[in-house]
Every structure is written in structure tokens, then in C-alpha cells.
Design goal:
Blueprint lengths: L7 H13 L2 E2 H12 L3 H13 L3 E4 L2 E4 L3 H17 L3 H9 L6 H15 L1
Antiparallel strand pairs: 1-3, 2-3
Helix pairs in contact: 1-2
Length: 119
């Protein structure tokens, strides 16, 4: 995995792959044409780039992930907290809740997650 940073368009395309995997490259071209208005060449170019980054593989015309969606977003979140808040989850949380009030449901869910982690 070289560089796991994706642009907006690459992320949209990755989402399409995750939602449809395993998917044939032919079907992927059709989906990208419909949802992103891409030409075949654009689909293959972006697919190649995502494969080079280590996210997906195209094996004999079948595209599937090497990194699952949840793992990818976990890595992105960790990197964001590391780079922006020097790895401090409490600092991130303080910044996040500084302008936005949490709902009772969100607070309960966070408490549940912390309790599960402690066990």
C-alpha cells in the first residue's frame, strides 16, 4: 500500500467498487458510465491507479478489494487524528463537539463503545 489518500472522485469510484464487489471490469465500466458519466478509458485509468495504491485488484477481469471499506476509513480516520491533533483522540473529540452538540443517542452510543473497549 503506497499512498492511501484518495481524492473525491477516486473515493466515489472506490465506493462503487465496494458496493458491487466482486465485479467484472466490464460491468464496472457500465456502472461508472451511468453513475459518474465516465468513458471506458477513464474507468480503467482510475481503476489502475487504485490497484497501484493497493486498494483493489483486477484479476482476470474481476475487480475486488484488497482493503475492505471499513479498514480503509479506519486508516483515514487514524491518519487525520494523528496529523491534525497529534494523535490525541480527546483533542479531536473536544474540537468536534465544540461546535456541535451531541444527541442523547450519540452520547449513549459513545459510552457503549468506551465500555466495550474497557472490557
Amino acid at each position: 500500500m503506497k499512498d492511501l489518500q484518495l481524492g473525491v472522485i477516486e473515493t466515489k469510484f472506490a465506493e462503487i467498487i465496494w458496493e458491487n464487489e466482486p465485479v467484472s471490469s466490464t460491468q464496472l465500466v457500465k456502472i461508472a458510465e451511468k453513475q459518474l458519466e465516465w468513458k471506458k478509458s477513464t474507468t480503467y485509468t482510475v481503476l489502475k491507479r487504485l490497484c497501484e495504491k493497493g486498494l483493489f485488484e483486477n484479476n482476470q477481469g474481476v475487480v475486488q478489494s484488497k482493503i475492505k471499506k471499513t479498514e480503509f476509513y479506519s486508516l483515514q480516520s487514524e491518519r487525520f487524528v494523528d496529523e491534525t491533533f497529534k494523535g490525541s483522540l480527546p483533542a479531536f473529540f473536544a474540537a468536534f463537539t465544540g461546535r456541535r452538540k451531541l444527541t442523547k443517542t450519540e452520547i449513549d452510543e459513545l459510552k457503549r463503545m468506551v465500555n466495550e473497549y474497557e472490557e
